[in-house]
Automatic annotation (TrEMBL):
It holds the Pfam family Usp. It comes from Lacihabitans soyangensis. Residues 22-164, 236-291 form the UspA domain. It comes from the Bacteria. This is Universal stress protein. Belongs to the universal stress protein A family. InterPro entries: Rossmann-like_a/b/a_fold, Universal_stress_UspA, UspA.
């Protein structure tokens, strides 16, 4: 056996043995079409890694649904409390019907009531992976606006997969890895969480002109990182763009990528206000599914 090939196999085997076993996938849902698509993806992943799925529907009280329900039935003596109870019952029924479509994986339905923000309720659940759908900045019919999906990405301590596409199966063939050659744990998290066995990996470093980039050295570092991670079938690109966000989005669209993998700083408060987050912005504007992991 070739010594270099044998070395790669050993490093890859060691990495697999050291992986954290992912046991719980959380899927926040408003029972919309894109949220149901996220559940499809979560079930596919759960089957591959032998994990369970928790399907979480958060009802924020008071919600517009209560007002609409009360305006229709209030004249016949239905109280707001009764209207709320009926809304919860309808949600439980819909969740039960939705889960019945799946087999071969454990799915636990959860309906929670809160008067707080939706995102806080999601983050209270300790998951190994969050899978959620998003239509981007235009948002969902209820809670899943772009601002909510990007807040989950920023605040979550576990990896987050934001599903954008409507493909029949989640089998990414072209994966863009947005690298700065400092952070790499987010790539490991993607490898251990997602079905990427047959993917073509595009290592992408964006040159936004804010610093001097040695192209030859940068490409050599990307090669070295791929070898360290035990990845085969790789391409390496240094892309010129006005901003890192725009470079990632343009490259992913040009290459017809199936998935973007990024790290996020998970900034909060003033630091987030002034600096923002490239990952959050990409999640909001990408037409491609995005996997993120907080790495400081």
């Amino acid at each position: 056996m070739d010594e270099k090939f044998e070395f790669r196999i050993k490093k890859r085997f060691k990495f697999i043995l050291n992986k954290k076993i992912m046991k719980k996938i959380l899927v926040p849902t408003d029972l919309s079409e894109i949220a149901n698509r996220a559940l499809d993806v979560a079930v596919e992943i759960a089957k591959k890694i032998n994990a369970k799925v928790e399907l979480l529907n958060v009802k924020v009280y008071p919600t517009a649904d209560v007002g609409a329900y009360y305006s229709l039935y209030g004249a016949s003596g239905v109280s707001i409390d009764d209207a709320w109870e009926d809304i919860l019952k309808a949600a439980k029924k819909e969740m039960k019907e939705l889960i019945s479509k799946y087999s071969g994986v454990q799915i636990k339905p959860l309906i929670e009531e809160t008067s707080e923000h939706f995102v806080e309720s999601v983050l209270e659940h300790k998951a190994d992976l969050i899978v959620m759908g998003s239509n981007g900045a235009e948002g969902f019919k209820e809670f899943f606006s772009g601002s909510n999906s990007e807040e989950v990405v920023r605040m979550a301590s576990c990896p987050v997969l934001v599903v954008k596409d409507s493909q029949d199966t989640f089998q990414p063939k072209k994966v863009v890895l947005g690298v700065d050659l400092v952070h790499e744990e987010f790539i490991k998290k993607a490898i251990e969480s997602l079905p990427l066995e047959n993917a073509e990996f595009h290592f992408l470093h964006v040159d936004d002109g804010n610093r001097k980039v040695d192209y030859r050295e940068t490409e050599a570092k990307m090669h070295k990182l791929a070898e360290k991670l035990g990845l085969q079938n790789c391409k390496y690109e240094i892309f010129n763009a006005n901003t890192i966000e725009y470079g990632i989005l343009e490259y992913a669209e040009t290459e017809h990528a199936d998935l973007i993998v990024m790290y996020t700083h998970g900034r909060t408060g003033i630091a987030h206000f002034f600096k923002g987050s490239i990952a959050e912005s990409v999640v909001n504007h990408s037409k491609t599914s995005v996997f993120t992991y907080v790495e400081n």
